[in-house]
């Protein structure tokens, strides 16, 4: 199993348990997103604040201005899912390491996976 799949499974498990999703916010309340090719944009999500803090230390030039924010799983589904249904949007789950590696998946799969772990 790849490290990305392992991190994704940890994400599903932890979010199902805590019912909290973490994301990054840039100055001026702009959501952290990455271009991932094929005209797609990825919204990175994490299962804990400590994961974001660790990445900020590993990659301060990219993430130094990022503030960790959280939202309940219920509110995520209500507020974030509608904007993530676009074919050009995916979510990156528990990106890790200096190069922010992980997997990007459609939001619909994210919901199915978390609910399967719940």
UniProtKB/TrEMBL annotation:
List the InterPro entries hit by this protein, alphabetically. Answer: DUF2750
Protein known as = DUF2750 domain-containing protein
User: Short name of one Pfam family for this protein?
Assistant: DUF2750
């Amino acid at each position: 199993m790849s490290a990305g799949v392992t991190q994704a499974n940890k994400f599903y498990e932890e979010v199902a348990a805590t019912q909290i999703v973490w994301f990054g916010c840039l100055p001026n309340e702009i959501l952290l997103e990455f271009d991932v090719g094929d005209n797609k944009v990825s919204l990175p999500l994490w299962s804990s604040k400590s994961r974001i803090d660790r990445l900020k230390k590993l990659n301060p030039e990219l993430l130094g201005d990022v503030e960790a924010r959280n939202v309940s799983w219920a509110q995520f589904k209500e507020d974030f899912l509608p904007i993530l249904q676009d074919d050009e949007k995916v979510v990156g789950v528990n990106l890790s390491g200096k190069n922010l590696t992980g997997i990007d998946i459609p939001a619909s799969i994210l919901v199915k996976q978390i609910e399967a772990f719940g």
